[in-house]
Amino acid sequence: MTETPTHCPYCALQCGMTLSGTPVRVTPREDVPANQGGLCQKGWTAAEMLTVPDRLTTPLMRARRGGPLEPCGWDEALDRITAGIEDLWRRHGRDAVAVFGGGGLTNEKAYQLGKFARIALRTSQIDYNGRFCMSSAAAATNRAFGMDRGLPGPITDLGLADTILVVGGNVAETMPPFMRHLTGMQDRGGALIVVDPRRTGTAKQADLHLQPTPGTDLALANGLLHLALTEGLVDADYIAARTGGFEAVRTLVNGYWPERVERITGVPVPHMRETVRLLARGRRSLILTARGAEQHARGTDMVTAFINLALALGLPGREGSGYGCLTGQGNGQGGREHGQKADQLPGYRKIDDPAAREHVAGVWGVDPETLPGPGRSAYELLSALGTDGGPKAMLLFGSNPVVSAPRAAAVQERIGALELLVAADFVLSETAQMADVVLPTAQWAEESGTMTNLEGRVLRRRRAVEAPDGVRSDLEIIAALADRLDAPGKWSTEPAEVFDELRAASAGGLADYSGITYERIEAEGGVFWPCPGEGHPGTPRPFLDRFATPDGRARFTAVEHHGAAEDVDGEYPVYLTTGRVLAQYQSGAQTRRVRPLVDAAPEAFVEMHPDLADRLGIEEGVDVRVASRRGTATVRARLTDAIRPDTVFIPFHWAGDGRANLLTNPALDPMSRMPEFKVCAVRLEPAASAAPATPNGAKL
Length: 700
What we know:
alpha/beta
């Protein structure tokens, strides 16, 4: 029996698994540190995605605008796309065509897609759904440390920590095998602290749970730093030797005395004091943020406040200690390093840096002057579709923004205004259903490549089965379009060849993969970047000697609490926060097709405290209309005392009337351009007694 070692298609933990047999069976791998033989329900059922009934195996195309999607040949589909692109170029210029990628694409595909946008389409209009994932953490870590890379060391360091503070992350549901590292830490006598408005599965295991008002994490972090100062717990020697900018932060947090922070956040002062003392009690403490702290209109500053706390305690740059980000999507780390973001080139280079442009253009064999400059960020790009001055066509790879984007109804409307939408997918996602041309793509087990997990470890994904007849890989699709558009350079369809070119393009950049080869990944079980030469061992802990700033020092930045972009009021008196559940993933385009996962989590719901439900006349299990200033969603009521009475929670995996993102606020962080997914103001009422609504969700 042939056995193929590979990795899970879902989150950034990238659990190791072995695929074998017909039909394909999944067995967890013991040799991968991230999961150490464990898998979650999504991982165990991952092979069922390969045989979903509505799998696409032939291109689909509309003969006319508004007509049905009908099967067609590959040449017909590619010719239609090419003709549409060239027509738009003639009428509107190069930026009339946009590209939207995904954080689940392999490094090879993300790299090739960015290259395709810059030298085949010569458009600046490219971004990806990872902008909605950890962009605020990336902006904050770049500002503080000079480099953005998920965890500060191997995941096994977590088990050696004295204290771990998890801010806005529910790893018990989002990446369950991660919990074994936290459990091991607690078994050794370590303490787990969780910051979350909900008593999640992760919070239930915590030694201490802080339950703040949504949108107040920054005030909490500043308050914790204030306490660290007043109780003499900061590491003055470390601050003097390894950081800069502390005095401005010290002055600012003087205004965050404990009682004031308790009034802002709702977190009791004794809990804040205990948190600081636990973090400072040992040499090894970790502060980890996730989407709950990052998906805010001030998400970069929120993360910065927790980095300030970590720096003041002397944590970053020590083995088994520091600040880290819990990356969400499968290749959320690698996916943004090599050119999918609007402002970046491969190797985490800035697209407006002349030296970066010259280096990458040299690898691609083009004039640096022909490369476009920075484009629009993800939500700004989606909002510009079909407008005057905005893109008139979009090529979509590995994303489903009709469900995943904030203010989803408005995004759906903009997508509907395009003259040409092309979707490459293995099923008809909600966004692909709107496309003019749909191209059937290979799935994770049907192709090879590399992924970079939340540790910064580059891993091999290996092909276990052949794709169905009629299906092509994303690399084959990109190469075919590049050929039809007479693009310069080489457009290989072999992942190993594309990876070798990626290595050359990344050489000398912050995310330097030049010393990483498929052979090394095989032999070493993954290689940590940066790895600037084949003789280099890789960098599992990048900040032990110096930070990636010009002077080698980490940077404190003074950040002030401003609250949510949209606070509650008399008309919309309840906070909404969003997130994930164990059995579903992202927009649900994959998991909503796997029967055991559908059985475990069949529909959207709104989680609310019984006291709130009683005041509103809402009972367990009834349909509830949840309205914000942007729209209305109808979901099932789920009552629990695990959430604050002033807050409700809706998971974002479902389409249709249950879309959480019909409600969310697209207010953008000024640095990261992250939308404020995690807090907005809503009102609720039983659906049976609700007034009719207009198409945009507003009451009549």
